[in-house]
Amino acid sequence: MLIRSIASFALGICFSMAVHAQQPVPKRPGGGPGRGMGNMIQPLEETGFQPIFNGKTLDGWDGDPAFWRIESGVIAGETTTDKQPKQNTFLIWRGGRPANFELRLEYRLTGFNSGIQYRSIELPDIKWAMKGYQADIDGEQRFTGQIYEERGRGFLALRGQFNYIAEGKKPGLVGSLGDPDQLKALIKDADWNLVHIIARGNTLIQTWNGHVMSMLIDDDTPNRKMDGLLGIQLHRGPAMKIEVRNIRIKNL
Q1: Strand 161-165 relative to strand 211-218, pairing
Q2: Distance from the CA of 225 to the CA of which of 40, 98, 187, 252 falls in 20 to 30 A?
Q3: CA 203/CA 247 separation, integer angstroms
Q4: What is the per-residue pLDDT across 77-107, written as a single tens digit (0 to 9) for each?
């Protein structure tokens, strides 16, 4: 019952956010311009965040220098047809292992596939390889916004899903956060997108450009991670380029 109550409460919040963000706001009877219900609750101010990328160097970050560089003040990772990593490779932040946090950043993807790792581990036998939760990104926007687990349980919450995982079970759908295609329309192709990841206890929330894309309550204790490394993915395969800027974090 407790899990159902938490899930229902969280779903109500996220569903309200998604609907409110995407639907016209009704006005009160007799209300004129500026008097609609949309003014009742304002967006949260961004406070308490600390930058973890200085815009000049890769200080604090660790990755294969053959693929990662600073370009025009942003982190740039790039593969070509003739220059590929042996497997998916990552630029790893070495500044800590965040547990409960909010992470905000902007990215621009040109080409194939990328992602933002969090609460992850580095594989001991493969340098710059990671396992853990991922805010997925791809150039065709098939997977962008979903919660994926790299080298783990795979698809945990697709775009538009609020899911729950019980111990030893597969993900189950609690409810919808919106139509996946309508959410897809909010993602910018080959342009800058704002990602906001919230990890608090066993609950994960991912937003793109101010809209909730996916949410997960993970009670699969043996397989979940409650803290871990952050990273940016370069995916082996077709040529791609990922650019990231304005990376900041707030510990909760």
Answers
A1: parallel
A2: 187
A3: 21
A4: 999 999 999 999 999 999 999 999 999 999 9
Q: Are 246 and 94 in contact (CB under 8 A)?
A: no
Q: What are phi and psi of 18, to 5 degrees?
A: -65, -45
- Give me the pLDDT at residue 36, please: 63
- The residue whose two tokens read 């997960």 is 216
Query: Given pLDDT bands bounded at 50, 70 and 90, which one contains residue 163?
Result: very high
- CATH assignment of 2-251? 2.60.120.560
**Amino acid occupying residue 17:** M
